[in-house]
Amino acid sequence: MNMTEGYQGGVSYGLLNITSENTTVTSGFQLLNSQSMDKAINIMTIIILLITMISLGCTMEIAKIKTHILRPKGVVIALVAQFGIMPLTAFCLAKVFQLEPIEAVTVLICGCCPGGILSNIFALALQGDMNLSIVMTTCSTVMALGAMPLLLYLYCQGFPGLENAVPYVGIIIALIMTLVPCTIGITINHWASRYSQMIVKVGLSISVIASVGIGVMSCFFLGGMVWLVFSPQLMVVASLMPLIGYVLGYILSTLFKQNGQCKRTIAVETGCQNIQLCGTILKVAFPVEVIGPLFLFPIIYIIFQSGEALLFILVFRCYQRCKPPTEEKTAYLAAGKSEETIFPLPRDRPLNLEDSAPNH
């Protein structure tokens, strides 16, 4: 199957119109305007990725990375969860919901992406192990350079017509693009750490505003095509992928007897993908007539990813508030018992309050 010819069977992507079985949707943009708009969206997408990765690098500390590398059990479990659970989940969901080839590629790319900066924010809100979260994000970003193309190649073998359809060179270039600004961020955090928090806050703000701008521009650029990305199958897949990642990440870390902080951290790191990287790959590496509106799939994914994470955070905070402080009570009682042991009261001596009164 030629990927430039098909999407959902009877729909063909083109710059001038889209034809379905009984419906013809006119795109409403001329070739020159569409090319200019497409280039503008590509440039904004790349800029967002660069800003996001610099911000991510500003959260990384070399000393903490070394500490976890020397004791890598938690990092290894987290990486197995990241590159084992999520790509397999994406593959299974694409098969179960019988997605079209280009839809399956989109979902697989999203599932094979490394962790992003949102996972660090969610780990902090869940009182997780921030060192592990940052180190896992760092390691998964570096490992993605080899793991992502390999996983895409392996899983694409399960879909007819996709064996040679993935632009591996474009994906590797996009991954290299993430490492350079990430290194810049790490350098800033190491040599000028006083600016790191400001860069992270400004970077996240710019990313959110620019993402909204890309969404608006895409609506004008795609016209009626934009609604194709809101198909029931894709919406269900976008909602299930992060949820399955959160749950299976927590279960895997429980099986390996990690503590509560590590369990919560590995869970959010597994379910959270680098959506900016995913969007950049889909928008820049694929021709617009091939990918169509599917480069907007990461935006739908991040809505469900964030919403489900916020729900878990709310449940966790309610549990923390309602949970009886058993540990503090136990410690207090233990201290009281030890004091009684050290200063016992003689059985044959009556209690005299004057003995315990302070001397003036």
Structure summary:
The chain is mainly α and 360 residues long. The chain has helices at residues 31-57, 62-70, 73-96, 101-112, 117-125, 130-156, 168-191, 196-222, 232-255, 260-271, 275-285, 288-291, 297-322, 326-342, 353-356; strands at residues 17-19, 24-26.
Quote the average pLDDT: 78
What composes the largest sheet?
Answer: 2 strands, antiparallel
Total of DSSP H or I helical runs spanning 4+ residues: 15
Overall spatial form = globular
Q: Structural class, please?
A: mainly alpha
Quaternary structure of the protein: single chain
Describe it for me?
Helices cover 71% and strands 2% of the residues. It is mostly helical. Helix 1 crosses helix 7 (168-191).
Quickly list its features.
360 residues; mainly alpha; globular
Show the helix and strand layout.
Blueprint: E1 17-19, E2 24-26, H1 31-57, H2 62-70, H3 73-96, H4 101-112, H5 117-125, H6 130-156, H7 168-191, H8 196-222, H9 232-255, H10 260-271, H11 275-285, H12 288-291, H13 297-322, H14 326-342, H15 353-356
Antiparallel strand pairs: 1-2
